[in-house]
Amino acid sequence: MTLYQVVGGTYRDDVYRLDSAFEFDVSLNARAHESSPGGPGLCLAVALRRLGADVLLDTVVGDGPDTRAALEVLAAEGVRVRARHSPGPLDHSVTLIDAGLDSVVATHRSQPRPVLDRVDPGADVVLVCSPTVLRGLAARLEGRRIVLHPHAQQCRELCALPRQERAALLGAVDLLVVNEHEYDLIAPLPEIGAVPALVVTRGPRGSTLLTADGARVERPASPTATPPVNTNGAGEAFTAALLAARDAGHDWPRALELAADHAGRHVAEAASLGFPRTRIAAPIHLGAHP
């Protein structure tokens, strides 16, 4: 079983579904609202665990009921946690999803950002996501398999790193997963070409794999029996399934197909507004590579 050390944020997530498209003045008299533990680190850790991986989450938590609720969710899912505790409330994220499934996220951070200061000796893969500090990361990860799943702010930080440090970090990354808006931020970087595998997710338009040897693989989104109703957490679901499929021995085209299928089931699940509250009734069957 692959051991993933996930480094990323744990938040309290408030998700609102609106009846109308975004306007300048958005009312929070939403059609639906949920509040629960979330955040990029927690969601990726739970998504990987549900697909059979062994997971250790490196994160930062505060004190109070939101932190206790997050740790209870992680314990119930079987995710091991190495948390840095800091006074004050847990970081808080508010997501608005409009009638067209566009979304906007506002995060209020009360806690210090996660910093990877120790790699678990048994970790097979280190998965770095928002809002982990990128500065100095390459030196601490030497010789490890690294997956980078940054959000927009981390992409901007990556662009702002000194060129030598940025080249060292991207030269150490095995897989980089971004959405199309994040890709637009990092695409001009000359060091991007050194990343062995770069996956760009495009929502309903599928995904694209770009490799360092010049290959390009396009994968359409998987059709769903019901219309998409919930995109919150779909990126984490896709990335976890992509990694699990690769661990099962599937080649890139098949891994992208399985990840698209898994994310498609996620966005069609109406039981909840987002991950980890959403629990897909029939997860993908990874099987073994033929």
Question: Would you kindly provide a written description of the structure presented here, covering whatever features stand out?
Answer:
- The structure is a single chain.
- Helices cover 29% and strands 27% of the residues.
- The protein has 290 residues and is an alpha/beta fold.
- It has a domain at 1-133: Ribokinase (UDP-N-acetylmuramoyl-L-alanine:D-glutamate ligase, 3-Layer(aba) Sandwich), CATH 3.40.1190.
- Strand 8, helix 3 and strand 9 form a beta-alpha-beta unit.
- Helix 7 (234-247) packs antiparallel against helix 8.
- The longest helix is centred in the C-terminal third of the chain and has 16 residues, at 252-267.
- It starts with a strand and ends in a 23-residue tail after the last helix.
Helices, strands, pairings?
Blueprint: E1 3-7, E2 11-17, E3 32-38, H1 40-50, E4 54-61, H2 65-77, E5 80-85, E6 91-97, E7 103-108, E8 125-129, H3 137-140, E9 145-149, H4 152-160, H5 163-172, E10 173-179, H6 180-186, E11 197-201, E12 207-211, E13 216-219, H7 234-247, H8 252-267
Parallel strand pairs: 1-4, 1-8, 2-6, 4-5, 8-9, 9-10, 10-11
Antiparallel strand pairs: 2-3, 6-7, 11-12, 12-13
Helix pairs in contact: 1-7, 4-6, 7-8
